[in-house]
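Whiteboard transcription, Tuesday session. T.W. wrote the C-alpha cells on the left side:
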C-alpha cells in the first residue's frame, strides 16, 4: 500500500494530510458506470417498523476476520457493508454501489474507483481512501490471525493507491482478464477512525497487537443501511437503520429497498420452537425451505384464515462446495478405497425423496454448481451402490462383517466414522444416511454440535465427516479448500486436508492464469482431480426461496430476482435484496380480525420465473 509521493511536483493541494495532485491520476482513463439496468424494488414500499426473526445460535465474535469469525452470523456482518460495485441480480451486469464509477488501467492489473463522495459510515464519518489504506494494513497483519486473508491481500493484491479523498486504485498482484479483475479488486474498506491508533503495535503495522481479543464483541461501523445497535449476549441482536437519509438512497438501485427501521434477531436454538414463536406472532416470517415445514407444518387455521401467507420463488443462484466433507487426515480416511467406498455408501437420493419430499436437487459436483464453463459437467454424483461400496471397503482390508452388519479389518478396526452437523432439523436427514450406509457395512455416528460451535469444531479439523455447504462467488475458489498451505491447520477452510504437489501446482496455475478459456479449463481439471480423490460426497442444492409470513409483510409484484436466496432477512441482507416492507395498518387490521374471528382469503404464491 502506498500514497503517492508528490513532493517534487509543482502544484499540490492538501487533502486530509496527504499531498496529491490531479495529474498523478492517468489522464486517459475511460471512466464507466451503469445506470441502465432495471430496478427490482417496489415504489409502493413503506419505511418503518421492526422486522423480527431468529438465529439458532449466538455468534462467538462480531469480528469478520480471525478466530471463530467464520460462523453463520458472519453473513449479517459482512453484508452490512457495501462493495464498490455490485452485480445486478437479474442481468448480472456490474452496477455502482460504494463507488459511482470505475476504470481499468492498461496493465491488466489496476482498477480505479471513484468513491461516492456522499458515502458515510453508520456513525456519520465520511468514507475516504484512508479507509482503504487501513483495510490493506489490517488484512496483511499477523495480529488478526487469519492466514487466508493474510495470503490473499499479500499474494493477490499488491497495492492500494490513494489519489485523493475519493479516488483510489486497487492493484492486483498479477494480470487478470477484466471480469475477474473486478471480482478480485471489488473490496470493502474498513473504518480507520473506529480502530484508531493502536495502543500496542510491536509489529508497526498500524493494527492493535491484541486485535482479536479487543474487538471480539465490538461491531464496527458499516457503509450499508443497517448497523448493530443492541446486543443482549446469548439472547438477541438488533440492527438499526441509519435512517431515510441514508446516503445510499441516492443510488437508484437502492431506492425502495431496506425498508424496515429495525431488525431484531432473537436466539432460538430449536427451529420447531421458533415456528411456535412465529405462529404466536412473535416473529414476522419463518423460512419454510425445509419440505416438512412447507408441506406439513406451515398449515392450519392461521394459514386457512389468511393471517399467514406462503410464498415459493425459484432462483438460479450459484451453489458452493459441500455435502459430506471427508477429513483425509483421520485414521482410515487416508485410504482412497475407504473414501470411494463411503461415496457409494451414502444415499443422498433416498434422503431427498423420503425426508425432503423431492423438493431439493442432488448436487452433481462436490465443488458446486452454476459457475458456467468453470464447472466440469462430466462429473456426476456417485450413485448409492452398497455392493460397489463393499468392494472398495474390502480392497481397503475391511473384509469381516460382524453380527451387527458392520465391517472390520484384520486389526480389529471397525468401519465407523462420525458425521458432524450443526442443526437438530438435519437429524432425520443424517439418520437416513446412517441406516442406508449399514447396507455396505459402514457405521455412521451422528455428532450434533450446536451452531457456531460446530463450525469451530470443523475449522479445528476435529471432524471425521462434516455435513455442511459453503457459499460461492461466480468464479469458484480452490486455494482455501485444497492447497497444502492450509492443510492440517486450524481456522482454515481446508476441511478435507487432502493436498498433493500436483494439485498445488494446478491451483496456483488457476490463480495466476490470465486467459479466461485456459482458466476455465484448469478449473474443470482441478474439479476432476478433487472428484477422483473422493474427499467430498456431493450433497444437495435448494434452487428456491420459500417463506411463510404474516400478511402485514408485503412483497413486490415480482417476488424475487434471479439471485434471490431469501425473501426476507433470514441469514443476512444481500440474498433477500431487502425488497419487502412492513405495513403497520395491515398489522392492526390483522390483529383486530383475529380478535373478532374475521377471516381473509388464504394466500399461497408460487413464482416459477427462474425455475431451472
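and on the right, the sequence the group agreed on:
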Amino acid at each position: 500500500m502506498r500514497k503517492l509521493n508528490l513532493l517534487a511536483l509543482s502544484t499540490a493541494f492538501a487533502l486530509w494530510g496527504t499531498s496529491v495532485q490531479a495529474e498523478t491520476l492517468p489522464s486517459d482513463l475511460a471512466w464507466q458506470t451503469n445506470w441502465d439496468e432495471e430496478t427490482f424494488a417496489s415504489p409502493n414500499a413503506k419505511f418503518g417498523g421492526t422486522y423480527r426473526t431468529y438465529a439458532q445460535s449466538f455468534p462467538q465474535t462480531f469480528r469478520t476476520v480471525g478466530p471463530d469469525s467464520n460462523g453463520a452470523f458472519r453473513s449479517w456482518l459482512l453484508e452490512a457493508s457495501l462493495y464498490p460495485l455490485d452485480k445486478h441480480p437479474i442481468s448480472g451486469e456490474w452496477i455502482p454501489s460504494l463507488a459511482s464509477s470505475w476504470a481499468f488501467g492498461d496493465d491488466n492489473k489496476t482498477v480505479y474507483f471513484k468513491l461516492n463522495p456522499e458515502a458515510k459510515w453508520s456513525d456519520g464519518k465520511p468514507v475516504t481512501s484512508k479507509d482503504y489504506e487501513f483495510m490493506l494494513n489490517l488484512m496483511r497483519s499477523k495480529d488478526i490471525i487469519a492466514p487466508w486473508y493474510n495470503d490473499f491481500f499479500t499474494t493477490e493484491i499488491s497495492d492500494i493507491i490513494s489519489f485523493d479523498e475519493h479516488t483510489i486504485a486497487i492493484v492486483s498482484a498479477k494480470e487478470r482478464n477484466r471480469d475477474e479483475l473486478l471480482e478480485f479488486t471489488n473490496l470493502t474498506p474498513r473504518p480507520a477512525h473506529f480502530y484508531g491508533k493502536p495502543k500496542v503495535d510491536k509489529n508497526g503495522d498500524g493494527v492493535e497487537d491484541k486485535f482479536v481479543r479487543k474487538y471480539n464483541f465490538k461491531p464496527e461501523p458499516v457503509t450499508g443501511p443497517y448497523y448493530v445497535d443492541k446486543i443482549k449476549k446469548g439472547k438477541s441482536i438488533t440492527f438499526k437503520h441509519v435512517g431515510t437519509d441514508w446516503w445510499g438512497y441516492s443510488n437508484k438501485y437502492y431506492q425502495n429497498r431496506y425498508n424496515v427501521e429495525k431488525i431484531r434477531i432473537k436466539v432460538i436454538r430449536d427451529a420447531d420452537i421458533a415456528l411456535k414463536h412465529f405462529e404466536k406472532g412473535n416473529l414476522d416470517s419463518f423460512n419454510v425451505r425445509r419440505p416438512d415445514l412447507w408441506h406439513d407444518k406451515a398449515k392450519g387455521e392461521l394459514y386457512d384464515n389468511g393471517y399467514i401467507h406462503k410464498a415459493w420463488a425459484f432462483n438460479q443462484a450459484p451453489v458452493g462446495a459441500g455435502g459430506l466433507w471427508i477429513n483425509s487426515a483421520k485414521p482410515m480416511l487416508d485410504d482412497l478405497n475407504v473414501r470411494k467406498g463411503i461415496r457409494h455408501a451414502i444415499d443422498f437420493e433416498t434422503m431427498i425423496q423420503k425426508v425432503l419430499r423431492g423438493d431439493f436437487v442432488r448436487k452433481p459436483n462436490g465443488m458446486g454448481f452454476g459457475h458456467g464453463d468453470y464447472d466440469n459437467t462430466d462429473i456426476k454424483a456417485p450413485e448409492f451402490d452398497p455392493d460397489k461400496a463393499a468392494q472398495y471397503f474390502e480392497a481397503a482390508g475391511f473384509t469381516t462383517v460382524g453380527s451387527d452388519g458392520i465391517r472390520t479389518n484384520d486389526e480389529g478396526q471397525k468401519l465407523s466414522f462420525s458425521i458432524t452437523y450443526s442443526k437438530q432439523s438435519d437429524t432425520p436427514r443424517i439418520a437416513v444416511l446412517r441406516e442406508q450406509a449399514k447396507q455396505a457395512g459402514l457405521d455412521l455416528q451422528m455428532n450434533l454440535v450446536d451452531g457456531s460451535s460446530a463450525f469451530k469444531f470443523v475449522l479445528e479439523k476435529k471432524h471425521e465427516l462434516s455435513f455442511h455447504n459453503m457459499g460461492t462467488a461466480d468464479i469458484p475458489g480452490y486455494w482455501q479448500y485444497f492447497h497444502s498451505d492450509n492443510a492440517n491447520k486450524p481456522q482454515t477452510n481446508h476441511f478435507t486436508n487432502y493436498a498433493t504437489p500436483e494439485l498445488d501446482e494446478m491451483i496456483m496455475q488457476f490463480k495466476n492464469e490470465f486467459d479466461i478459456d485456459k482458466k476455465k479449463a484448469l478449473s474443470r481439471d482441478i474439479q476432476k482431480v478433487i472428484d477422483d480423490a473422493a474427499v467430498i460426497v456431493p450433497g444437495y442444492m435448494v434452487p428456491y426461496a420459500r417463506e411463510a409470513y404474516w400478511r402485514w409483510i408485503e412483497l413486490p409484484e415480482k417476488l424475487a430476482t434471479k439471485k434471490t436466496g431469501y425473501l426476507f432477512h433470514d441469514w443476512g441482507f444481500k440474498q433477500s435484496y431487502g425488497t419487502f416492507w412492513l405495513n403497520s395498518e395491515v398489522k392492526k387490521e390483522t390483529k383486530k380480525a383475529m380478535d373478532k374471528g374475521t377471516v381473509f382469503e388464504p394466500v399461497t404464491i408460487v413464482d416459477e420465473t427462474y425455475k431451472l
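Someone added at the bottom: Residues 2-23 have pLDDT under 50 and may be disordered.
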